[in-house]
Design brief:
Layout (H helix, E strand, L loop, with lengths): L3 E7 L3 H12 L4 E4 L11 E2 L1 H8 L17 E2 L5 E2 L3 H9 L7 E3 L2 E6 L2 E4 L4 H6 L5 H16 L18 H7 L4 H11 L12 H15 L9 E4 L5 H12 L3 E3 L6 E5 L2 E7 L2 E10 L8 E14 L12 E5 L1 H4 L5 E7 L10 E8 L5 H4 L1 H4 L7 E12 L8 E3 L10 H15 L13 E2 L1
């Protein structure tokens, strides 16, 4: 392993694999190393035996759950917005050719103790109990304004300056009730808390536009989300294939690897007696314990069930958002569900995940509102993970470190971090000029 590289990447989480693939395409000589014997790092998808090793050490999975090989259980469950940044990265790199996508059946939101489908079209909006008749008219005017809004065309601004106006002021301009604001801000704009209300309206309007564009990117979608067959573990492996095509080298099962520094600058890695040198080192926080800080904790529950989530029209895949006000919390809770239809569980089994940012010392109690929506579960596992962030941006010590994965069930914040890392490493923005849409199975 005593060689020179342009870049060494540590960890095969999704973020690290995307960076590895992008830099390989840029003709960089990349060495990619992981202490684990599987791809995915913190964002891996595990089979049933691996899942039990992680949560029930020494116990064997019950036969009632079906074959271990039928399971691909995501450790960081997330959907992709159909017109979001991750899909655009997949298109830009042509990684889509390694993946199969299935549309997500529905997006739901909790309001006053009941879950309601977030309307996917005009007729659903008219029937939705989320709003009364007059409120629907006001909301329609708001949505038409957002859909038509073009930053470069002042005629679409209707005299409103979204950079100076707060989101609360824009809601007030359209006379929208608090309940309507709640589902727009959390289920469409995908904000995690209500801090956005006092901030500039522009970012929220652009988020709502992204939701709308994702919903109509493909014909017949019932939600704006996509999900890969065989689980999210397919994503890091797809980017690993991309890197390998462009000459990247991969080494798994290297538990002793550590970063090598000279004069405080990362210059490579040590692996026992072997040394590999590089101009810079990229990796997840676990490889740089002295260069990161814990900024929060996320708690996730994984449930295996033999039925869909109640009140979701027997859906094979759904997202349910529980806005903070609806549960008396400071941040939102997310329920994510997929099933055997996505090749992630045995026949007639569903996987449900409940995630939130921890606010107390009792993680299981924090998830109770989300768990209550699931109905009976066969197996349940709960895990608390630190969310870490790098102390510095990497430009001085050439150690470029990703952030931990938050509680959200979509990839926008994940890819924001990747694009920011790419900019710091290369000095330029990644061109995400859209290509042809991916192929999606309804």
């Amino acid at each position: 392993m005593n060689e020179e590289y342009d870049v060494i990447v540590l960890g095969t989480g999704l973020k690290e694999c995307i960076i590895s693939g992008l830099l390989s395409v840029d003709k960089k000589k990349v060495l990619h190393v992981d202490r684990n014997n599987y791809y995915g790092g913190e964002s891996a998808s595990l089979n049933l035996i691996q899942l039990f090793e992680r949560f029930r050490a020494g116990a064997a999975p019950p036969p009632s759950l079906g074959p271990s090989r039928d399971y691909n259980v995501d450790m960081v469950p997330k959907f992709m917005l159909a017109n979001g940044k991750l899909v655009r990265v997949l298109l830009h790199t042509d990684v889509v050719k390694y993946l199969e996508f299935k549309a997500v059946d529905g997006s739901y939101v909790l309001q006053k103790g009941k879950i309601h489908k977030v309307p996917a079209n005009d007729s659903e909006a008219l029937r939705s109990p989320l709003m009364g008749l007059f409120e629907k008219r006001r909301a329609r005017n708001f949505f038409l304004y957002v859909q038509d809004y073009d930053e470069s065309d002042p005629k679409t601004h209707k005299g409103l300056d979204l950079n100076r106006m707060t989101m609360a002021e824009l809601y007030k301009h359209y006379d929208l009730t608090e309940d309507t604001q709640d589902f727009i801000g959390h289920a469409l704009a995908l904000h995690r808390d209500d801090a956005y209300l006092t901030q500039s309206a522009m970012p929220t309007v652009l988020r709502i536009k992204l939701y709308h564009e994702s919903l109509f990117r493909y014909e017949g979608l019932n939600s704006p989300y996509l999900y890969p067959r065989y689980g999210l573990g397919e994503l890091p492996q797809a980017f690993a294939r991309l890197s390998a095509v462009y000459g990247g080298t991969y080494m798994l099962n290297q538990p002793a690897v550590e970063v090598l520094y000279e004069n405080g600058v990362a210059v490579g890695i040590k692996n026992g007696a072997d040394v590999a040198r590089a101009k810079l080192v990229v990796g997840d926080p676990s490889y740089f314990p002295d260069k990161v800080r814990v900024v929060g904790k996320v708690v996730r529950a994984i449930a295996i069930m033999n039925h869909p989530i109640p009140n979701t029209d027997n859906a094979h895949s759904v997202q349910i958002i529980l806005p903070q006000k609806q549960t008396g919390r400071k941040s939102d809770m997310y329920v994510f569900c997929c099933s055997y239809a996505h090749n992630v569980a045995a026949k007639d089994k569903w996987l449900a995940f409940v995630s939130t940012t921890m606010e107390t010392a009792n993680p299981e109690a924090e998830l109770s509102a989300g768990m209550a929506l699931l109905g009976p579960v066969e197996e349940k596992y709960i895990e608390v993970r630190d969310i870490c962030e790098p102390l510095d941006d990497g430009t001085k010590d050439q150690a470029f470190i990703s952030k931990g994965y938050d509680a959200t069930t979509h990839f926008e914040t994940t890819v924001d971090d990747v694009l920011d890392m790419y900019r710091r490493i290369t000095g330029r923005d990644l061109d995400l000029t859209a290509k042809e849409p991916v192929t999606v199975e309804a």
